[in-house]
Amino acid sequence: MAMTIISLLTQSLLAQRPGLTDVLKQNRYTITQSSQDKLEGNGIDFLIDQATSARFFLIGERRFTEEIPTLISKLHNSFYPLGYDNLALEIGPTAAKELEYLIKRTGINSLNGFFSKMPGSIPYYDHIEEGQLVADAVERGAKIWGLDQESGSSARLLFQNLQALSKTKGQKKLATKLFDEAQKGYKNDSLLIITGLNEERLSELKRTFKNNDRGLEIIERLVDSWKIYALFQNRQGYQSNATRNNLFKTYFHQLVQAIRPQSSGKVLLKVSSLLAGKGRNDLGFYSLGNFASEYAKSINSETFHLLITGKVHLRDGKERKLPEIDPELSVLEDISSPGETTVFDLRPLRRLLFFRQLKDVPEDLVKVIHAYDAILVVPKMTHALEKFD
């Protein structure tokens, strides 16, 4: 009899466990755009509250879309009054400085001239929407930071900067020679940052620029990037990715140490979804997002991690829906607000998962719930094609 009562009670408790969609609906917010193109609704209020509490706000995004950079720019506009005067991007430090310099000089139109002379020299941000995001941030007064290796296609930019920073004929001659080699390598579609470089050549660069601190800074960035490409070229893909993963953390720490005294110290980080989450990512690394979270705790501060995806992805005239784009997030397709941007707060789900009070949660979604604090679903993502020229 006692066992029967216990069995009935257990069944009753299990029956009361909330369903996944029910909990997600209870923690759902929406964002709309006003006639002045500003973000409105309880969704933006929710994100502003989180940005107020956090020092580092990390956004994990899908690359090459028209809508997501535009949305992130509007989010930054909402966050800027809270002190987010630092924008960190998934590009090299030298590339970030160049973008900021060009936009400060003559605005976004300067990117047309720059990319027409050196196409592909700053990855991602040769797309119109991405460049506009940076221009908007600079015009607000934000400092632009680069957290990644310098791209292979940035070799011409690095050597052009070394030319400009040269203080001796020997420095100018070597920088010019390397620039010409990188330009030739670009036309031949080679791994540009490796073209003509080896440990002997890099040592020669360091010796030649030994009394040129600004030149040596660029050379150090070049060496950091060369190591990653050299490992990959030598079929050491895992070690290449591990080295790059650690470089993100190094540059992030340098960023925090170098933030301007007049800044509030808050940073908006815009990187890929592999980098922005907590815990291990799909490559098996504890990546930038996890490092930022742990660092924030060590200084008695907080992070907030937002994943952005779309309900529909349009590319080459074909439409792909959320279950095809991100299968682990398919549960969000039917409960995202039609025609509006929807935000789901994932944090309440963690407690339910811990006490095994939530049923029918796919394993891949569990990883997302622990990696990200919220998911933002835009109604549509269109593949970005238009570039500066």
Global mean pLDDT = 92
Discrete helix count = 17
CATH topology of the largest domain: EreA/ChaN-like  fold
- What's the SSE pattern? HHEEHEHEHHHEHHHHHEHHEEEHEHHEE
CATH architecture of the largest domain: 3-Layer(aba) Sandwich
In CATH, what is the homologous superfamily of the largest domain? EreA-like (biosynthetic domain)
Helix % is 40-55%
> What is the 3D form?
globular
The overall strand count is 12
Using the coordinates above, name the CATH class of the largest domain. Answer: Alpha Beta
Beta-strand percent range: 5-15%
Report, as a whole number of angstroms, the end-to-end distance.
Answer: 80 Å
Oligomer: single chain
Radius of gyration, whole Å: 23 Å
Q: Indicate the structural class.
A: alpha/beta
The low-confidence parts are none
- Numbering strands along the chain, what is their spatial order in the largest sheet? 2-1-10-11-7-3-6-4-5
Total domain units:
2
Biggest sheet, open or closed, and with what strands and sense?
Answer: 9 strands, mixed
Q: Any chance you could write out the topology, listing elements then pairs?
A:
Elements: H1 2-16, H2 20-26, E1 28-33, E2 39-40, H3 42-53, E3 56-61, H4 67-79, E4 86-89, H5 93-106, H6 110-117, H7 128-140, E5 143-146, H8 155-165, H9 169-187, H10 199-208, H11 213-233, H12 237-258, E6 267-272, H13 273-276, H14 288-298, E7 303-310, E8 312-315, E9 318-321, H15 322-325, E10 341-345, H16 347-354, H17 363-371, E11 374-378, E12 381-382
Parallel strand pairs: 3-6, 3-7, 4-5, 4-6, 7-11, 8-12
Antiparallel strand pairs: 1-2, 1-10, 8-9, 10-11
Helix pairs in contact: 4-7, 5-7, 8-9, 8-11, 11-12
